[in-house]
């Protein structure tokens, strides 16, 4: 057998398979149409809509599963960018050598009162 005969044979098998599937779907649609009292095109359109909905739901679930993971609320975009720059490089700076800002002690609330006398134009 040469390649042209093989390709025509495969094409014939593929066309034959498609015709068989089409015939089976039409028969099934007619059976469902007889039992429900609808036209065969209505049954096929309902099946097509259901198929599209299922494919859409699967696509959405896959998209949500593989979606980019978001960081925690306290990490800012700047911190993430800096981490990306530093990642892969060794840091030669000791943490002890870094200057830490002094911790601020809470001393209470400052309470003041400002009175201004508009008649005499001076502050009390």
Give a written overview of the molecule.
By secondary structure, the chain is mainly alpha-helical. Helix content is 56%, strand content 3%. The chain contains 3 helices and 2 strands, in the order H-H-H-E-E. A two-stranded antiparallel sheet has the order 1-2. A hairpin with a 4-residue loop joins strand 1 and strand 2 (122-123). The longest helix is centred in the N-terminal third of the chain and has 34 residues, at 3-36. The radius of gyration is 38 Å and the shape is elongated.
How would you concisely characterize the structure shown here?
With 124 residues, this protein is mainly alpha-helical. The protein has three helices and two strands. It has a two-stranded antiparallel ribbon with strand order 1-2.
Report the structural category.
mainly alpha
Helicity level: 55-70%
* Radius of gyration of CA atoms, rounded to a whole number: 38 Å
**How many individual β-strands?**
2
The strand order across the widest sheet is 1-2
* Straight-line N-to-C gap: 114 Å
Overall pLDDT: 78
Number of helices: 3
- Unreliable runs, pLDDT <50, ≥5 residues? none
SSE order, one letter for each helix or strand: HHHEE
Q: How would you sum up the global shape?
A: elongated
Instruction: Outline the biggest β-sheet.
Output: 2 strands, antiparallel
Proportion of residues in β-strands: under 5%
